[in-house]
Amino acid sequence: MTGKEIIGAAIKLQAVPRCPATLMSAGAWALNSAGISLEKALSSDPEKIAAVLYEAYNRVGSDIFWAVSGFNNILIGAIGGKIKFRSKGTPDVIEPLVKHISDIDGSDGTSGIGINAFKDTPNMRFLYETTRFLVQRTGGTNFVALTRWGPFTLAGLLYGAENLMRSIYRDPASVHRLLEWTTALYLADAQNYIDSGVDFALVAEPTASGDMISREHFAEFALPAFTRVFTALKQKGIATCLHICGNIENRLDLLNGIGADLISVDYKVSLKKCREIFGGKTAFAGNMNPVGIIQRESPEGVAKACEQCITEAGEDTGYILMPGCDIPPSTPVENIKAMVNTGKNTRRIV
After folding, report:
1. What is the pTM of this model?
2. Which architecture, in CATH terms, is 3-344?
């Protein structure tokens, strides 16, 4: 079976011959391994960067290849936000673009903060073109996956996380309006990647972590936005995943039935708990510690930790071995190979 067939079967809770294993995102690592920063990549040839990404994911044997990941905040820059690049790693948003939620209440839902014109900016065109070349290089053997901020995290980045949290208490109706707009923004961006050939989408939602909002507010604000996104993506015929950073054990039960094919969890979340909640209902992935284990351990230590993850996840639950979050750019390639190979060498029910 190809990597795509293995992942495709796992997310459908079907039997597979071995444990699926993949990186999550890792765009900054993939480019850094070739001596290219994310900022430098944007001024390079898209076909060349696609070749670099292909080589990085292929070299470590990842079952999923990620389409120019690490560039999440480029979208915010493309609609007028201010971002700043790091020498390594991903760019930061340096100030909120939306000063007042009413700024987005125009007749078309944009009022000058557009969700349509961004695709023609040079940086966004580069990302879409690079994606097309990566899809061509894979030749259908692997999913080519998009990973971008979901609507709740986009709302926090565009409006400011503190402003968002205060408004949840003071003006919940305005937060719902903002989330409707960021949902439309996410889907407009995702459509361009789908048109470029991606067939898998991971929606990243660190701001929806249990470290950030309560279960009650998660259910009231984040969950409806997630459901709208996954309903729309499923209608487009692509595979889907939700990743939330931090400890979300107190809301795992809310994620069955939101429409995502796969739930990805951080290292703070017990895989035994995931098996209890998701087993036989929804596929799940994780939860290798990206820094404490994958970056800092020896390859032997990585393999041992992976074996423990696989044991805790169980034999027939639709489990995918994956880091609990994006890996640092300087992660040793030997450690990544140790993770992936541990999964691939683990026999599954057939």
Report:
1. 0.95
2. Alpha-Beta Barrel (3.20)
